[in-house]
């Protein structure tokens, strides 16, 4: 079993820089709640990094362009968290749920209950 995290952002250094600036200047309009929960403007939050590194579950992270290249026939709204088990993808947290989560600690608690 693997958990796939898909950010509502494209990959690349320029996109990361633009996203960081967007988070700083207008955090309420930033389109990726998963990014906002797990990253500060330019670096991964310590709480999230500790959780991710200590997790016994296989966690895979994609930007939306990377996900679409690997799974071209899978349609999901971004951001999302999916479970991959027996070659089947299941949505664990959709964008609506991710948008309602208030802190990285809350996200971690929800994920712990899903593992």
What does this protein look like?
- This protein has one domain (2-114).
- It is 45% helix and 21% strand.
- The protein is built from six helices and four strands.
- The protein has a four-stranded mixed β-sheet.
- It is globular and about 40 Å long.
- The chain starts with a strand and ends with a helix.
- This is GTPase.
- It comes from Winogradskyella vincentii.
TL;DR of this structure?
The protein is of the alpha+beta class and 115 residues long.
Topology:
Blueprint (H helix, E strand, L loop, with lengths): L1 E6 L5 H13 L7 H6 L7 H9 L3 E6 H7 L9 E6 L2 E6 L1 H6 L3 H11 L1
Parallel strand pairs: 1-2
Antiparallel strand pairs: 1-3, 3-4
Protein name: GTPase
Organism: Winogradskyella vincentii
Roughly how much helix do the residues carry, as a percent range? 40-55%
The order of strands across the largest sheet is 2-1-3-4
Shape: globular
Number of strands: 4
Largest sheet: 4 strands, mixed
The tally of domains stands at: 1
The amount of beta strand, in percent, is: 15-25%
SSE arrangement, N to C: EHHHEHEEHH
Number of DSSP helices?
6
Mean pLDDT: 89
Organism: Winogradskyella vincentii
Protein name: GTPase
Which descriptors would you attach to this protein?
single chain, 115 residues, alpha+beta, 4-stranded mixed sheet, 4 strands, globular, GTPase
């Amino acid at each position: 079993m693997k958990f796939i995290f898909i950010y509502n952002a494209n990959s690349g250094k320029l996109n990361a820089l633009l996203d960081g600036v967007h988070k700083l200047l207008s955090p309420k309009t930033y389109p990726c709640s998963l990014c906002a929960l797990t990253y500060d403007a330019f670096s991964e939050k310590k709480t999230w990094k500790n959780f991710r590194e200590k997790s016994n579950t296989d966690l895979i992270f994609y930007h939306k362009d990377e996900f679409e290249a690997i799974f071209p026939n899978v349609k999901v709204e971004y951001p999302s968290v999916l479970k991959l088990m027996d070659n089947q993808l299941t949505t664990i947290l959709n964008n609506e749920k991710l948008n309602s989560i208030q802190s990285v600690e809350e996200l971690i608690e929800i994920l712990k209950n899903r593992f």
